[in-house]
Amino acid sequence: MMSISSNQIEIRMAEESDLDWILKLFQDCILTVCREDYSQAQLIAWTSAAANMRRWKDKIQSQYFIVAHINKKLVGFGALENKNVIDLLYVHKNCQRAGVGSKLFEHLVSTAQRQGIDVLKAQVSKTARPFFESKGFAIVHEQSKQIDATALQNYQMEKRFD
User: Any bridge partners for residue 86, and if so which?
Assistant: First the structure.
């Protein structure tokens, strides 16, 4: 884990030129950080989503898609879909538990709240579940997501704002 202060982490809107780094971080994070919670076949199925470049470009263009940088190096990204769904939240494998995820999360939450959202939703992996629970999310239900012939367990979670 790196030692990082919150003011070192810069957040900005993602650009299509970030896509190669985003996809590398996405795959590296899944293959390393999530390997205790999912089988090798599940990890490979999950990372196969990186192959659909059109889908990722569409996400950058249509969602509130942000990246986190430290010294101009991409260390995380997150995206808000339809104003009320955290669609993506990934942090570089060397920056886990260093505040990057929290800073991205806080940015997404404040954006949703500014848009009048009273319930924020997310589909959360086994690995990310403790992080989301620490941020006030509760499990709505456990589910199985099918990717080709492989099933991955995750959780539909939500956070209500009063």
Answer: 80, 122
- Distance set, CA 21 to CA 27, 56, 57, 102, 114 (Å): 10, 12, 13, 20, 29
Cβ atoms 122, 97 nearer than 8 A: no
pLDDT tens digits, 68-87: 999 889 999 999 999 999 99
Predicted local confidence at residue 1, as pLDDT: 45
Query: What is the Cα gyration radius of the chain?
Result: 15
What backbone phi and psi angles, to 5 degrees, belong to 5? -100, 150
User: What residue has token string 């470049």?
Assistant: 53
Tokens matching residue 120: 């924020």
Sequence-distant (≥ 6) Cβ neighbours of residue 104 within 8 angstroms: 11, 66, 68, 76, 77, 78, 89, 91
Instruction: Report the alpha-carbon distance of residue 5 to residue 65 in Å, rounded.
Output: 23
- The Cα 138–Cα 123 span in angstroms is 11
At the topology level of CATH, where does 9-160 sit?
A: Aminopeptidase (3.40.630)
* Token couple for 89: 């939240």
